[in-house]
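does this look right to u?? 26W version
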Amino acid sequence: MELTTKDFIKDYKNQFQSMYAYSYEEGSTEQLYNALGLLVKNYISTPWKETRETYIKNSVKQVFYFSMEFLPGRQLKSNAYNLGLLDTVKEGLTELGLSFDELSEAEVDPALGNGGLGRLASCFMDSLASLSMAGNGNGIRYQYGLFRQKFVDGYQVELPENWLRYRNVWETSNDKSTCMVRFGGNVWLERNKQGYLEAKYENTLNVLAVPYDTPMVGYRNDKVNNLRLWSAEIPVEEENNYHTIEETEPIKEITQVLYPDDSNYEGRLLRLKQEYFMVSAGVQSIIRHFRKYNVPRKNIPDKVAIHINDTHPALVVPELMRILIDEERLSWEQAWEITFKTCSYTNHTILREALEKWPIDMMKELLPRIYMIIEEINRRFVENTLPLYGERITWQTAILQNGVVNMAHMAVIGSHSVNGVAQLHTDILMNDVLKDFFELYPERFNNKTNGITQRRWVHLANPGLTQLLDDKIGEDWKKNPSELKVFKGQEKDKQTLKQLAAIKLENKKRLADHIEKVKGIKVNPNAIFDVQIKRLHAYKRQHLNLLHILHRYLEIKQNPSVDYAPRVFIFGAKAAPSYLYAKQIIKVINSLAELVNNDPDVGDKLKVVFFENYGVSLAEKIIPAADVSEQISLASMEASGTSNMKLMANGALTLATLDGANIEIRDFVGGDNIFVFGLTSPEVYELKAAQTYNARDLYENNSNIHRALNALKDGTIPNLQDEGHAIFESLVHFNDEYFVLKDFDSYVQAQEDIDSLYKDQNEWTRKSLLNIASSAPFSADYTIKKYADDIWKVKSCAVEHEG
Ligand code: 26W
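got this back:
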């Protein structure tokens, strides 16, 4: 949009004064930020309204992305940037003697998700808007986001994240679109005068769902989509339906906290309430829209696509059935046809412990009508499948099994499309995790490799690199990422390489300053910055990284002149509060950091930095400064990974197992420009099947492993209780579930290869350039185009302006 600096200054002064009744010169940073945020939101409001009206007027097909998690990150900068106002705003503030960066740091980063799945949802929102597609998010407005992580004596401590204590300038509560969600009570069917079977309810607990809408601003296309987050509130009492304070107490709980478990399912009643609450409110508001505009119900699948982001919102299937049958009076067959054509499902993990299975008794009591419908879906499924495929397949794929509702099965049966998030992951779904379903419905399965938005992760996070790309290949890559490959042409250009290296060094200096500020650790910006940032989980193998650091430390102690390139190992990771082993790994890394960072024999050769409270904002600081991207999960375990893509796009070289999207990264960048190590997925499957793995043998016969493992428990690492022992035990006595020791040697070798290459700065930077130039396929814009073409059948849509 067009705005002069002068107009901006005028608007800003007015905005501030109208909010606080004094001049901006007297404002606190927080107030100055609030005024700026609300002003930018004002600028957004016109395209936001026009976008909505265009969708309605043209009756375009819309996507609703149902997700229990969204991790949008701070929005001031990205909104101003996407609107095309960032430079104007910065200039204007400078003229007023204010710093944009300082104000933008005052924004809270909403941590409404755990990790990859939530961040992916937000990258998708950004791409949908930027591609001018009608794509809305539907989720929960948690009052408390993911806990704030603090280290006390090296241990993770979780603090509440009360992000709404401050004003959230981006959201608009939308009172006219509330709906009622019913829980519990008794339900029965009664034939009414017209001969319909009517669902009758008594003694239900009614919860008011209040939507809070947040604009999702497209990149310079005047397009603004909607992220709708629901909050549970107590309904105003009615004459015959009122509840006491005691009865309504549990209502407020529903949207209070985000479950902090990543890839770990626990059958907690409150979580099931959250899932149904979000699903029911979302589906009701979609159907209400169709009623308002008189869309024939059978046309629903032509007008809406509902996406189920992992199984968490899989209750969409029975909820849509319920509304179509009970409220819209369609027959079962008509309702099923619509539901099935409307819904699609993405799986994000193959970890068995992550697969949601709700106890039937719990479901029946909390959601009696929904359970009746699930039972009927299951009955019909069994009735159709049994004669065609026989007993084994039918019972293995049923929704109701051994007293539980299998949510993945419900999602697959109720969706016309099922996808994994990287090619290997999709293959594993088809050949292993969902293989019986693949036999029943091969046509439903497809792959959609994840992607990231370059706008947040390159344009905004790495302005130096962005400027260099603009200078060298023009600005087209910003709208059309495939243009990035043109950058390959510069791989031999000495000057470009020099500039690229200088930009990386600048970014590293900035991160080094930040490290000193928050951790008090001095690091050398010329060292290799080696980064592993992701949730802490045994399958991601932060402890393999840990063992290698320990190995290097012991080598240095044994031979202080050993020739290692200086290295800073950087970690960012939260552990689920109940995941003891992950927390023990954090503690050991922190204690090892203390040892290494303070040992004069070590000097610059080795530094270890474990950031507290890793999240989107911290990632934006770390990623542009990374040289090495650690993607070291046991092959077959990481569905895709997305930090691998962000790091690659910022010129880090990947150190990886052939897992998830790492395989595709290697394919695009070429085997010479990535460091691959470890077992492959087929080898992992084979080794598991053979049951011949013996970790103790490796401990006993491999001297490096022996030495490093002993150091975990012999007092080498200071300040440990039994955490070192616990890791030792898991690896040696419990036979190393994730083959850490098996991959150790090849990991160490790859790390040494990294050292050698880094000594040749020119060659290193050339490979870094090739990584940047090969990162376009991982743009979320491409991923979203594929979802849109293959699954959702939605198109880009030009927005019409008034006047
Ligand atoms: C029910 C508990 C629970 C909570 C979260 C189960 C599963 C999850 C998520 C599916 C975990 C998750 O975030 N998975 C990650 O999704 C990313 C986006 O597709 C992938 O890149 C990661 O590989 C995958 O671990």
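The mean pLDDT is 97. idk if thats expected tbh
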